[in-house]
Amino acid sequence: MLEISHVYKTFNRGTVNEKKALTDLNLKLEEEDFVTVIGGNGAGKSTMLNMVAGVYPIDAGKIIIDGTDVSLMPEYKRAHFMGRVFQDPMMGTAAGMEIQENLSMAFRRGKSRGLRWGITKREREQYYEELKRLGLGLEERMSAKVGLLSGGQRQALTLLMATLQKPRLLLLDEHTAALDPRTAKKVLDLTKEIVEEQKLTAIMVTHNMKDAIQIGNRLIMMHDGHIIYDVKGEEKKGLQVSDLLAKFEEASGEEFSNDRMLLS
Amino acid sequence: MGILLAIQGAVSQGVLWGIMALGVYMTYRVLDIADLTVDGSFALGGSICATMITIGVNPWLSLIVAIAAGAAAGAVTGFLHTKCDIPAILAGILTQIGLYSVNLRIMGRSNTPLLKLDTMFKQLVALTGLPAAWVSLIIGTVFCSALIALLYCFFGTEIGSAIRATGSNEHMVRSLGVNTNFTKVLGLMVGNALIALSGALVTQSQGYADIKMGTGAIVIGLASIIIGEVLFSGKKRMAFGTKLFSVILGSVIYRIIVALVLQMGLNTDDLKLLTAILVAVALAVPVAIDKRRQVQSYKASLGKEDDGHAGN
Fold first, then answer.
1. What is the ipTM of this complex?
2. In A, residues 167-186, which contact B (CB 8 Å cutoff)?
3. What is the pTM of this model?
4. What are the residue ranges spanned by the domains of chain A?
């Protein structure tokens, strides 16, 4: 359903800060694939998600979603296909607006917006039920400004917003990295629950190797802007963190020197 | 008596200029863009209205044309900002400077008096027999009420919510499928349409249009917004309608302050300096209070530490 072929991206081309972020990236996702993405800093994990989402234009190659070539489609149009959760909890919600208003913006993802009311009574009832399953008590504070919520609450809300209209593709960019361990686990459990329940196709970037092995049906490792290891099914389930480290050294020819990945 | 008359005049001016402040509110607070088109689009509304009345067009009809022209001016700024990636402040300045020439072209001179010509205000004075200041006040209040109701409804719609969300978190709203270039341009158009309407009403009320009538309008708009916010600062959560009302009220209070200081003998030449200082102080005070509070809470935490409790 998602096909990334021969995608290249270089930032700040021709300057001292030139950075080849993606080099000949190829990835093909099947329906209901839940892929976890690992790799060192600067491997191109986040860039890959941003390219799929259309945040920046790609330099070369093709990105095809559901048979539609979206390579040149602007970000707001691609939003039709995907729900996104970002690393920074501040990024996925509008602090100055109410919880229910944020949800109503997400409810209209992929639909045309006109002069109908921005939020209806029936929607409010639906939001109440949806918020209830987060178990954070947000359903009783629907008209509170999102700026009053904690990072974890905002991230849970963003996840709910990303999946309020079933997305063809769910992009999770280290969405638990900025949260404390307990909140991170809660948001991660919720992610698994929603992905399973809605039978979503999803890509999750993570720095936690255990999570990367346990969650999803497929795991890819990135290095220097392309995929160096791609494993799925039974083989993936049997993986150990040490296997991944060895794999990284073998494929990249250098030692895994990222503390964050070793310690987690 | 002199003071009372001055205040009455100030209130009716305040409501008419309040519409301009509403326009500034649309960009400065709702969209979070500092749009400097204001000075140009205010005079644009005035020049169009005055010129049309001189050639015999119905004064009410001239308002509609002024609104459309203001929206067009906003669209130009929006185009420069979104499509050409020019910073919003610069885009606004470019349109504003360009409009100076456009306004001169429209009027054909720098000042167009409407002495013996029909305006909405004169029509209503003739119809009701009320004094001119009262008529100004009535027309201003009717327009303000209607506009607040209209804007309140508009910003409750899907498109209106998208504009508000663009001002709050552009990144998020784009990821949810909103074309933020479109919402920004639309917001700038709505804002400048209101500003031009205000310019047209002020022109008819004072009986002339002047090329310099818009100079400093942005600062007056900001002053109105800030005064309104200070007046309602006790309220933690303000409904959107209340916020709009506070802007109009701020504009009225601003005019009353101006009338009072003029009565006290301030030279009109110093008025703009006074306004600038007023806005600068109003913007600086909350920051100063915040910093002070931070330092105080730090000092308080030091005190606690001595008792064996580290402040968190």
1. 0.90
2. none
3. 0.91
4. 2-94+150-263
